[in-house]
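RECORD TYPE: protein structure
NAME: SpoIIE family protein phosphatase
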Amino acid sequence: MVSQGAAERKARALRVELALKTVTGGPASPERMRRVLEQALVFSSASLAAVYTPGDGADLLCLIESAGVPRTLYGLRETYAVDGPSPAADAHRSGASLWLGPERLADYAELRRMPGDVHLAALPVHGGDGGALLAVTDNPGGFGTDDRACLELVAEAVSLPAPTEPDEAEELRANSFSLAMDTGRVEVGDEILELFGLRRDRFDGRVETLLGHTVPDDLPSLMSVVEADHMSIGERELEFRVLRADGGPPRWLRLRGRLLPGGEGHPARLVGTVADVSTLRSGVTDVARVQRLAAALATAGTVRDVSQAVVSALRVPLRADRIALAELENDRLVVTVLDPPEPESWPELWRLEWRTEWPDAPVRTMPTLAAALREGRARIWPAGTPLEPALADVGPGGLAVLPLSAGGRMAGACLIGWDTPHDFGPDERALLTASAGLVGQALMRAHAFDAEHELVGMLQRQLLPRRLPKLPGAVAVARYLPATAGLEVGGDWYDVIPLPDNHVALVIGDVQGHSTGAATLMGQMRTALRAYAAEGHPPDVVVSHANRLLMELETDLFATCCYVEVDMEAGTAWCVRAGHPPPVLRHPDGVTEIAESDGGPPLGVVTQADFPMTPLRLMPGTVIALTTDGLVESAELDIDTGMDRLAHELSVSDPAHLGLVADALLGNAHRGDDVALLLMRYDGMAVRPLREGWTVWRVPEAARHARRFTRRSLRAWGVPVDAMDAALLVVSELVTNALVHTEGPVRLDLTLVNHRLRVSVTDNSPRSPVKPTSLGWEATGGRGILLVEAMSDAWGTLPVSGGKQVWSELLLEL
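PREDICTED:
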């Protein structure tokens, strides 16, 4: 059986091979070597990778390409003697890989100054004239097994034939040049001379002559390229201006160059091309665009807002065909905006990774992108650049990647792609660079805003019911909309409380203010109302108890509340209001009614307050709507007009789809305040229970009278005599237990529905009966509750106002 670790190593090796195959699969280009080395940085712990090959004299190993941090940080040189003592020379001569830790590195005199925890790998390059691949890591454990396998694959990839550079003796292309770094002599093509306004017969071959035609402000950047001390191995790109002989505006040129090391007796050379990019530059500066983007980002609150601002600011000015902005979460890019949004406009790999609306792209499938994020600077790849599959179709005509960093960490990336070949002018590059910094900061702020908003929303959801209960003879739905202004959690709440005997309590309320204090108090009030209702108190007592509790909490906040208790069997309801908008009833014929009723003050205002009850009559098909003032009142809308509008919208709705009705009612909600909405459609119970009740007399023969009442009721309901025995025994034991252990009135209630009989005995004692754990033969009591448990299909106790109810359910064989 293959271990998980072995499977992961195999999968990692396959990813490395795929990435290298992608990089090296295209036509040879000067960038290919660097792109191969970048894979070592992506898939291993290497912080630097460099390739050395024999120079022209074959007695020196010369640095031809590197990737990662500057080599000077580790004291690596540009050349090493083939016969000398160095890791690169040893690997080249022996053909074997060297894995050197701090102790072995101390054997090399020139490497003793390297940091003490650095590890170095030297791998031979077998293709061509040979050479060596050097890799350095700051990992204290050095290169692990997977790292070594990755570097071996990279060493094989760099062995492929590299693109050849033009020799000085060869005829240069019209737009090419070759500069000898030691003498400053330069060979240039005819197009370059034309761009500088020079004639071939008047050019003296000196680079200083060309520099004399450039705009003085651009000279420092040019000198950093043409002076050997400031130029390192690898590709470089620069845009600068040259003066026109006719006095017109300066012409913009783009220089792309590559420094080639020289061997023994041969100078280093800078070779490359120069092209005219004046026509690609806008005559209007991009400062205005950057300012507009900054203004848009300043008001962008969420990540989506930031993304949309970026698309609006960049796509049209850059004439881009697609833009993607993504957040970096661990090792994955979670894309927040794609423009255009259609899946078919994006690479196939992204479509395979599609998650509902946006893709979720792993960074490791795009090592080129991973390298750009690690370097933290904008990268541009022109048309024809071989890229991995996840990026190739984003910009076949050109791709720009903007790493979005802020606060010392990488927040995400912006990908901009073109379908047709696109030349990147200096203005565009400046716009991209400036935009990256602005977007990174805005993205960090928006991410923090979204995280805080999500935390607030999670707190609100935890304080509200997760789901509404299934009701007998009714359907209920609820909606909650938080205010869009600010992040403070609100105090609106709703609840649906199932009660005994097919009663249901509908509750909606609002605590003053928007704060964590209001949310905390809301949770306390919701819990208190549920607890008082479960105790069996009538609606006015439930609300009175909640008012007294709020007064005792000594808070400066108050709360409004509307409490409606519905009898599902009778189709009646009692409503109690405490400073809250009244319910709105929609009758089956579509007529709506605002249930005006006398109400009490808000909770927490007056200690001894009256909360009168108002009766409501419900017909099957009636809809009860309870809402908070956020739906019916605002600065532009008084509450009376808002209630009338709610009643009208409810009257024209279709109550058959209650969820759609709730969504429609919230469609025009003012989002300056929280909104809670609770709807219940009363359908009536399909089967109404049969009920009888009797107050037990405290007489010596009370149990016999209770059995007689039970037998008479069951006979009237058509229950056969032979099916009554278990019920009569349960009634006898429960009534006897209540009379013996409690004082005050005792009530017996019988309910029959669908062959299921419920026997309930209510008394004034809050203490529940205790089932004995063991009984000796001499015990004179305690067996009654065991008999009830044995005869019942289910039994239990419920708190009621001032006492308890012990109940038992039996399935009768009729």
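COMMENT: Residues 162-170, 228-232 have pLDDT under 50 and may be disordered.
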